[in-house]
Amino acid sequence: DYTKLNKIVIGVCGGDGIGPVITSEAHRVLEYLLRDEVKKGRVEFKVIDGLTIENRVKANKAIPDDVLEELKKCDVILKGPTTTPRAGDPWPNIESANVAMRKELDLFANVRPVKVPDKGIDWTFFRENTEGAYTLGSCGLNVDDDLAFDFTVTTSQGTERIARLAYEYARNNNKGKVSIITKANVVKTTDGKFLRICQEIGKEYPEIVTDDWYIDITTAKLIDEKRRSDFKVFILPNLYGDIITDEAAEFQGGVGTAGSANLGNHYAMFEAIHGSAPRMVAEGRDKYADPCSMLRATVMLLSHIGYQKEADKLERALDKCMYEEKKYVITGRDNGATCKEFGDYVMETTQKL
Amino acid sequence: DYTKLNKIVIGVCGGDGIGPVITSEAHRVLEYLLRDEVKKGRVEFKVIDGLTIENRVKANKAIPDDVLEELKKCDVILKGPTTTPRAGDPWPNIESANVAMRKELDLFANVRPVKVPDKGIDWTFFRENTEGAYTLGSCGLNVDDDLAFDFTVTTSQGTERIARLAYEYARNNNKGKVSIITKANVVKTTDGKFLRICQEIGKEYPEIVTDDWYIDITTAKLIDEKRRSDFKVFILPNLYGDIITDEAAEFQGGVGTAGSANLGNHYAMFEAIHGSAPRMVAEGRDKYADPCSMLRATVMLLSHIGYQKEADKLERALDKCMYEEKKYVITGRDNGATCKEFGDYVMETTQKL
Ligand SMILES: CC(C)[C@H](C(=O)O)[C@@H](O)C(=O)O
Ligand SMILES: CC(C)[C@H](C(=O)O)[C@@H](O)C(=O)O
């Protein structure tokens, strides 16, 4: 409960790729909305640079020690996307900073809402955020030149806490239904365990209907206009949550419009659901990046730390800019608004509300 | 090359769940189209019963030995969906019969076309079919009550052969582009290897553009009407191929309309891309199941064994029934056509062509 803290420290960490440009727009609006709280000393902003690919490569660590230390001094974090080295890149094989931060700060729940009222879509995804294919994703095994292994991990505790959070959310928001998504017919041990535990916890919520589907058919059902509004709340292992939330966000305007909350018992981090878009940067299109994902993340951050009025205000401004007035359209290319133009527009709209 | 065989033996295996009802419609049309070949002794049909969940449970094997022996006597197989036991079911933990058959007959490539001309969709998915999360999907490890592991496998050979097949297809069909889909930023060892090998093989096809995307953002791009026609041919590890082909099929009318070819060096098996729909059976709706997936699989089978004229004929009849005349509509419920009615309609339409 953040209202009990003397002061809330908000870390702002731009990341790299398109991270800094989209994060700075969100930062600007956030500072505006909380300006009185800052004056009163109730809120403090802490800008954390240094989560760039260059620094991470230099430190040969997913998150350099000094950056991690700074992050741990914050109560909540607004974080821009970060570039992940991968096979064939000129960088060493360090882990994704997103993935590392989720583990280091034990942010076990990745909550991703997708809402498109006129399409009957009002989904909330509870993605398990530290296990599955991600726990040991950087620790695979090359047995020899021909044979490689990766590992998937499911723990009882890890599954219980994400399931409980999802069911509590469903109960408190009268959602009536929770869908558990796995591939337990093939990935039998870990997904089977995940499914079983979620079902067990579901039994403690008799007013909520639980169903379960395989991930493959679920990606089809989201598209089916007659079926998709049956879905309300989803619980998913890490990788399936990653995959399906990008698909789901597309109905709302794309991953550039979708924010997420990464929640743990001690920290909370808010970010875009997408990556750092190195291709946009390489093609000089980063200034056309869409800041809406980070602005939606900011709405979630405000609500999380108890500034619900401010959260509602920003959400209203975003809806106006994105769906109603549409004075600027973001296309990611030079026939659309720049990130800064769109940020100004959201800022002005927020100020007028 | 099937034209060199004295006789082609076609196995027909109904499976269970909705399998038998949809397979029998496909079987009927196939026998009609090849009736002269049967008379000439060039083609023989072999009906293989016994791939039911009851028999598999009794044998405690994914495929009972006698069934496997029969299957191995065939040159090509038309197979209905089969029910896969999973956590919580009253059955032992036997493997999916699909998965087992792909391994036993070394059907390394799962080729899944999705075509919707008026949406600019003309995709062919080359799903690696024996490795990834599937190789050891039934061999996970429960370390103790709290901790479970599953394993993902990638081999060089396994990746090379699917990549080569996809690039050869792209070359022979002037597709111009191949997209490699992985999650190599997280599942670094196996997906990293898969990506690297596909890219290497791509270099042998300089006239073909290769790009690569992560599976999460790819599920969004398929929906994006402005981007999706950029995609032509996909190469994917097993699990991502499983997931994304269900999504892709939705644009074409759902998984009930999509067939697939499971190809190896010695055998080939043709099936629906979906499962046995136990829920439909439980609700008494199996007679309303859509046979189109099995009929599309039949088109692929005919083409594969060299009966291109017959394949084209059936494809034409299906397009007429599904998209043009639409005398019957399949809904999966009692407000739609039954499987048998739709099968009759396709049969009559085929006979008239
Ligand atoms: C960038 C990547 C490591 C990350 C993930 O896979 O979790 C992203 O796709 C996300 O969903 O937040
Ligand atoms: C039924 C299931 C085991 C199967 C798979 O996962 O491969 C199916 O979804 C498919 O795509 O053929």
TrEMBL record, chains A, B:
Keyword Oxidoreductase: yes
Pfam family, one: Iso_dh
Source species, domain of life: Bacteria
Ranges for domain Isopropylmalate dehydrogenase-like: 9-346
GO BP: isocitrate metabolic process; tricarboxylic acid cycle
SUPFAM superfamilies on file: Isocitrate/Isopropylmalate dehydrogenase-like
Coiled coil in keyword set: yes
Keyword tags: Coiled coil, Oxidoreductase
GO MF term list: isocitrate dehydrogenase (NAD+) activity
Membership in a protein family: Belongs to the isocitrate and isopropylmalate dehydrogenases family.
Protein name: Isocitrate/isopropylmalate dehydrogenase family protein
